[in-house]
Amino acid sequence: MKTFFTCLLVLISFTIVAQKKILDHKDFDTWNRINNQKISPDGNYIMYALEKGEKDSYIKIKNKKGQSIYEHERAEKGEFTYNSNFALFTIKPWKDSVKELKREKVKKNKLPKDSLAIYNINKSLLSKIGNVKSYKSPEKWEGFIAYLLDEVKAVKKEDDSTKTATKKKNKKKSKKVSKDNGYHLVLRDLNTSKQDTFKFVLDYIFAKEGKRLAFTTTGLDSTVKAGVYVLNLENNKLIPVFEAEKAKYFQLNFSDSGKNLGFVADLDSTKVQVRPNGLYYWNEANGKAQKLLDQTTAPNGYRVSSDGSINFSKDETKLYFGLAKPPIVKDTTLLDEEIVNVEVWTYDEPRLYTVQELQVKNDTKKSYLTAIQINNNNKLEQLGSTEYPYATIGDEGNSDIVLVSNSLPYQLESQWTGNTARDYAIVNAKTGELSKILTKVSGRVSLSPKGNYAYGYNTVDSTWFTYNLVNKKLTNLTKGKVFYNELNDSPVNPRSYGSAGWTENDTSILLYDRFDIWEFNPENGSGKKLTNGREAKTRYRYLKLDSEERFLNSNENWLLQTFNETTKNSGYFEFNPKNNKGKLLISDSYRFSTPIKARENKQVIFTKQSFEKFPDIIYSDLSFKKQTKISNANPQQIEYNWGTAELVKWTSLDGEELTGMLIKPENFNPNKKYPMIVNFYEKSSDGIFSHKAPSPGRSTINYSFYASRGYLIFNPDVNYKIGYPGESAYSCVIPGITSLIEKGFVDKDNIGVQGHSWGGYQIAYLVTKTNIFKAAESGAPVPNMISAYGGIRWWTGLSRQFQYEHTQSRIGGTPWEYPARYVENSPIFNIDKINTPLLIMHNDADGHVPWYQGIEFFVSLRRLGKPSWFLNYNGEPHWPLKMQNRKDFNIRMQQFFDYYLKGAPKPVWMKRGVPAIEKGINQGLELLPKVE
């Protein structure tokens, strides 16, 4: 009887597994993503959006027990108000409806517009406002919301005589809302729903802490003139701060209290090229804004910038703004045929011309930080300048010492180093005195929270340091200690592991080594280890739970995240900085997120995920003892064959022990042989517990999709030897594959390989050295390191030289220093040895890898008659971004691998291609009859 029931259970289990569905491309559109998860400030409510494929987003609001209190379709961008009484979100028009209107050639300005939703949590009441262009709510107080509308419908009823008079009046040209005239600003009291409307508003802003609203308007009539206004919401008094016809306003901003306001105004209505901007300042104690600076009073050779942001120091004693150099004036009398457009590239100019070209807009908007001491007779001190253009203010602007820097002397060499050094100086915001402090620092230097120290990590000597800005003392903190990347395998100085931050009053700085957190005295460099992770190979990192946190509070426990390098388990750890002791709160075979904490208490939301487990939202407190699952985004997953992920180990040809990920189908049978796809980049095994939801990826195979369809996926880590990246990949990847073949469940005759960019290059190299792969997809590959060395990364305009000399490509020098290395690592010189059918995807707008590299690869294969196909998604960058192209790529890649690794029918596009005359019409995805 016992045997009978055992057999029955096995049969039932087999039936359940057998009945599960296999993932297909259409299933991508049934999977939800969780976006914009928020917890209310009081910790009682959670809001998030579900987005399913290309369908409309769906807002859900739940209480801390996971119970739904409100839902709304086609909604997104949810946020809670400061006191948790209201939820705000945007309601979009139905996507399908918009698509149909576009098909009917409806003009863009006639398409349906967004609506603003205001949900009263306490009263379970929803208010919707249509045709909202934008909305803002106060950051640190509650009670009001402001939003811009295209039009405001009249509410007041009119009698016949009034209507007749209105019609006659409207025969005159009436002012209409527009980008230039402004739109209607509605201020709504969230508690009473009462509204005030201010017409033809161009810009508006709430103060961060004070109950004030400022706006600029082009004016309505004699009662509301064009200008700048401040509304005091404590007494409902509207204050005309500044009045001017046809003025343009920029950088409108309050101090935190709302008692100070700054803005830039251009009062000239002509088209003069050099705009006569003026800087204006208003204080609540004064009636009108006063002009502080204009083109006649600005420092010689500078003008008030309309692009430099205006900010106030936290103590509201300083106003910061931007000064700019005069623009280069064009000769507007020249005709197009009289203008010479020629690019002049110079060998010794700091920035490569292609970089300059991409940064023209930024260059025209460049401004230099300047301070006005509003408590000291509006004294002006220029902080940034052409000599030191980049400025950082300390202690939220309160400090009188400003850190400035300049990278110009070292920009030319960054073309091949890939790293920009900087000179640093300090400026006294009271006196304007400049003192040079650091020269040619390779690594970013920052200011401590209170502004007492400059600090950073110099990659040249792999050392953290501090610089006391008062007594000008430099202190090396980690010289001779290993606080740099121990596993660095690139021909570049190793990076640091980073910093957790500073304790109160700049008392100490917390630095990371590979595993632990250390506390250092910034004055004398003495340090002590706070955690004990190295022995167990467990990494400890501080989790910042308050976005406004400026320092680590030594009077409260800290939440740390743990990660074990061997098991890849992660978790949370509570650390007491008073006694330097702590306890592990949770650790498991999951990948845990950084929790999002409620502002007013210790309630948090977080996620944990694995290959099998979707990262649903979980509610808890900082003890993590009681956990409540809030979301259930993809319950349908249980209906599908999925898969499992495990770590595997093997030894490279160089004798190094390596780790990788092996993904197996859910119903894996070790006695069966499976086709396998190898997919890799550099090192990926730390992501063993990352969830892989079904989706049409931009550049790589989807692990859950292929596992569901009966494939094994192997992702091996690669250790690199400088100068020999191709050989390194071979030494690590091929032994990993053979170690799996030896286990007996890999079909050695049906192994494919797929990768993109750096992965695409390594695949191109491997197929010149081995025939172990039956098919390969190589995305955006570099087959020729010599020609690629001289290429441009078009998204940034940067030369590709640094990549080969110092970073990812790992050659370690120039082609004239190491010509053999460039040849040996370039697949193009051994392309005749390729016997593996290749699918290549390289798009003509690629900004990372010049697409002529993919062309070089393909036309050489074509010249040799090697089976190969080339996909170019027109206008797409390094990978296809448009959803229709991503879906198409995933279908073609699956058909390619199924044909070679599973013996599936061949698709039309692989048989006859898609002729240019049929592009965009016939895709050739149909399968040909299978030939027996």
From TrEMBL:
<dbReference type="InterPro" id="IPR050278">
    <property type="entry name" value="Serine_Prot_S9B/DPPIV"/>
</dbReference>
<keyword id="KW-0378">Hydrolase</keyword>
<dbReference type="GO" id="GO:0008236">
    <property type="term" value="F:serine-type peptidase activity"/>
</dbReference>
<keyword id="KW-0031">Aminopeptidase</keyword>
<dbReference type="GO" id="GO:0004177">
    <property type="term" value="F:aminopeptidase activity"/>
</dbReference>
<dbReference type="InterPro" id="IPR001375">
    <property type="entry name" value="Peptidase_S9_cat"/>
</dbReference>
<keyword id="KW-0645">Protease</keyword>
<dbReference type="Pfam" id="PF00326">
    <property type="entry name" value="Peptidase_S9"/>
</dbReference>
<protein>
    <submittedName>
        <fullName>Dipeptidyl aminopeptidase/acylaminoacyl peptidase</fullName>
    </submittedName>
</protein>
<dbReference type="InterPro" id="IPR029058">
    <property type="entry name" value="AB_hydrolase_fold"/>
</dbReference>
<feature type="domain" description="Peptidase S9 prolyl oligopeptidase catalytic">
    <location>
        <begin position="733"/>
        <end position="902"/>
    </location>
</feature>
<dbReference type="GO" id="GO:0006508">
    <property type="term" value="P:proteolysis"/>
</dbReference>
<dbReference type="InterPro" id="IPR011042">
    <property type="entry name" value="6-blade_b-propeller_TolB-like"/>
</dbReference>
<dbReference type="GO" id="GO:0008239">
    <property type="term" value="F:dipeptidyl-peptidase activity"/>
</dbReference>
